[in-house]
Amino acid sequence: MTPSSSRKTSHKDLGVFPHAELPPQVAAVIEAIETDIIRGIILPSTRLIEDHLMEDYDAKRHVVRAALVELQRLGVVVKPPHIGARIRRFDAESLEALYHFRSVLHRAAVEAMPLPVADARLAAVRAAAGLHAEAAQSGDLIAIHRANMAFHRLFFGLCDNPYIEESIRLHDWLSFPARAYAITDQSALSRACEEHGQMVTAIERCDREALLELALGHMLQARRIYEGKYLSR
């Protein structure tokens, strides 16, 4: 995938996608790398060689370097000394620690949500769930990924605690190398769409117990897919 073929970043992505504020060429390379991770073309621990990325994405060296710096800042890329940039790979221990902390954050967000939710905010969450479902039907991998992140940003933003919200956003990015493979799994994608709808219904009903169960369980399918691909060998 070349940067020119990726979806252009809109102002609606700001905040959810920090690289939306970067120069368009850099954001396009990041989108292309994201897409290749989702497709399984770039695998965990894959070394990201600048010359190869320049050729694959028809980009200049300074653009590729800026893209890698941003992905490293988000935790998607790691750069051990004397080895070079690589896609983050989780072992069983680090994956358990990551998902434990994500569950702590998600629980805190749901417990802090004031219920009932204002009609306008509920409508925004419902619309975001609809956009994710539409993206799932389109098959546009970046659109699916971004619509999913946008839904989560609005949903967890209902907690009205900017520190919890920002921590969730950062750990969504940190977990992207583990979550990405569920996007091309049709069963997992269908279930994610269904659970988004259930979250909206639980908000409408002011059912905090159901919201908590959904928020914690929603993460598990992507984790199981990653474990099956990379930790069961």
Structure description:
It is a single chain. 66% of the residues lie in helices and 2% in strands. The chain is mainly alpha-helical. It folds into 2 domains: 3-87, Orthogonal Bundle (Arc Repressor Mutant, subunit A), CATH 1.10.10; 92-231, Up-down Bundle (Four Helix Bundle (Hemerythrin (Met), subunit A)). A two-stranded antiparallel ribbon has the order 1-2. The chain is globular, with a radius of gyration of 18 Å. The chain starts with 23 loop residues before the first helix and ends with a helix.
CATH homologous superfamily identity of the largest domain: GntR ligand-binding domain-like
Which stretches of 5+ consecutive residues score pLDDT under 50? 1-15
Largest beta sheet: strand ordering: 1-2
Helix/strand-derived class? mainly alpha
